[in-house]
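Encode chain A's predicted structure.
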Amino acid sequence: MPVAGHVGVMSIQETRHRDCHSEVIRLDDAAVSLGGRTVWSHVDLTVRAGEFVAVLGPNGVGKSSLLKAILGLIPLTAGRAQVLGASPGTHNARIGYLPQRRAFDPSVRVRGVDIVRLGLDGTRWGVPLPAPLGGARARAARARVQEVIDLVGARDYARRPIGQCSGGEQQRLLIAQALVRRPELLLLDEPLDSLDVTSQAAISTLIRTVCQRDRVAVLLVAHDVNPILPALDKVIYLAHSGALTGAPEQVITAEMLTMLYGTPIDVLRDRAGRLVVVGQPDLPAGTVPPQIPASR
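Encoded structure for chain A:
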């Protein structure tokens, strides 16, 4: 669900004039530990306005923990971080966050439009006032909710109970919820997981459109980079000992990934141009490969 905190709806003009060179995220030699175990360390990362960045790596390497550290939900144990010009957690109201997806039970009767509305005023007590009592603020909120529903292409099913929507439809509505406050940064944790190929392509195109049109910085955790590969500006490949960051064609290579994980890795392409990483380790808890330079 959206990051807690209430903020007024930013104008379209404000979103379009964001400085395309401004740093949205900066990590310098950052590290995170959980339960006395180093999850990742020596991570350097810069994400600028309008950049679409994928977070990649095997299971257990701390991809979700990276998003939580950016939100200030997990403290760094080393290094420094700045998010939207301040320490993590300071400006969470300017961040849209979509955690790992959990399908809604078919019996859930809450409408999709109401799920989206929670992203705008879900941190308040009570229910929205009826239209005659809500005033200008309520009208603006309803208009914004409808605007973002149209943006993600969910008009046809937004008033349907969300439990009766397909996985792809639910995901579009949840992305609309994350976008409804016009965030400057969008953090998406495996938004393509469990979706069919058609839905993956559609969601990827949607995210790229928002990224380019409104100069929103996007950090997306993915297991499979192929659905989003054509849209990416940069990838960060995580390991316990560090990370590689850069353009996909620079990072996703046999040489770089072999160095990162300290074990032979092959990167192949099939006839359709899809990447296949062979020998990628699912590192067991507590295993730390040899130290390498933090980023390239």
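The CA atoms of residues 131 and 138 lie 7 Å apart.
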